[in-house]
Structures are given as structure tokens and as C-alpha cells.
Amino acid sequence: MNNTIAYDIENNSDVILKNWQLYLFITFLYLIITLINDKYIMTHEVYQIILSEKMESYRIDDFYEIVKRFSLYTYLALPFLIWIKITFIALLIQMPLLLKNVEVSFKEVFKIAAYANIPYIFLGVVRIVILLLTPKVEYTNDLLTLIPGALANFFSKDRYSFIAYKLFENINIYEASWIFIVYTGINKLKKIDKYDAFILTFSIWLGLTVLQLMILFYFTNAF
Q: Quick one: pLDDT band at residue 16, thresholds 50, 70, 90?
């Protein structure tokens, strides 16, 4: 990943950021969010609160210790998982273009896919702020999985199926921002017109959403 990303600044100077640097920066932000969540949000007290109706106290203690023990593996795996995620999205962008005989560098689409993580990083920050400002005694499973700015927040969870509600959760300002970032990136490549760029972007988002819902449906019915 030795190509560079140039940003035009008002003073016409360029800030050079290589793709691997962009990847490391995004990974660092995800690691910080995960660390804050583990250390200050999902504390032993919170596990006691949200699991008190399902487990005895001593079992919650054991479960908490297991979770914390495996948290190290989460930190080790996170950079690899982020790399896979960015690469997968980049391939989803590149393959349809190649099928239309539109040549585009993987380095360019990798940049687009990397920047598409910004809305989800922002979501992580918003969640942390909300949870840090909320007393832990008020924590619930719904609060811990809250997506601020989602369509689901305007509907009652009890009135819809699990999958339908998850679909409403996926319609939110962060997903809309993802679509905007990817669309803008593809459009700036100047390989296809704006209409095709939007159709490609929306198709990728729709496909990923359907895939996510199918996986949730499978695990919901399998267990």
C-alpha cells in the first residue's frame, strides 16, 4: 500500500498520508474505542446489572473473568479484522467496475473503503459519550446496543420482529454517511458517471445489509 492520499487545503498545500498510515490510524481509533468500552463501560458492575436476572452472582463473576481474559485476543485480532473489512469492501467496489471493463487501482478503492469507516468510528464515540454520561445503574441491554440517529428509535421494539427491528436500526445517519463517503470516493475516480456511481454504492450497501440480516436470522433461529 504505497500510494498516497492527497488532501487539498485552503492554503493549497498537500498533506500526504499513505494508505498503510491511514489503515494504522483507523485501527488505532478502533482500539481506543474498544479499550475505553472495556475499561469504563463494560465493568463488573454493569455485568452484574444486565445479567442479574439470568445468572447467579458467582456465575456472573466467572463469566466476567472469562470475558476479560479473552479481551486480549480481541485486541490482537482487531487489526486483522479491520484489514479484512476494508479489503472486502474495496473488492466489492472494484469487482463490478472490472466487470464493466473499467480499470481502477485497488489502492484507490482501498482508500475509499478505509474512509468509509469514519461514520462507525463516530458512532463508537457517540455511544461512549452517552454511556459515560448515564449512571451505570440505569444501564440496560437496549441502552448498550443503542444506535443514536437510527430509524428504529422512532418505533416500539415490542411491535416488530427481531429482524425487522434490526433493519430499522440499519437505517441511520451513519449508514447514510457511509453511502455518501463511498459514493463521493467512486465519483472522484471519474471512471463512471454519477448515476452509476450511486447505483453501485447503494447496491453494495443493500447487499451488505441483506447479508447481515440473513446472518442474524440464521443465528436467531439456530440457537
A: low
Instruction: Please give, one letter per residue, the 3-state secondary structure of 29-82.
Output: HHHHHHHHHHHHHCCHHHHHHHHCCCCCHHHHHHHHHHHHHHHHHHHHHHHHHH
| β-sheet bridge partners, residue 16 | 6
Is-contact 20 1, C-beta < 8 A?
yes
Q: Which residues pair with 8 in a beta bridge?
A: 14
Instruction: Return d(Cα 82, Cα 29) in angstroms, integer.
Output: 11
pTM of the model: 0.87
- Give the C-alpha separation, 216 to 213, whole Å: 5
Q: What is the pLDDT of residues 154-197, one digit of tens each?
A: 998 888 888 899 999 999 999 999 999 999 999 999 999 999 99
d(C-alpha 88, C-alpha 118), whole Å: 16
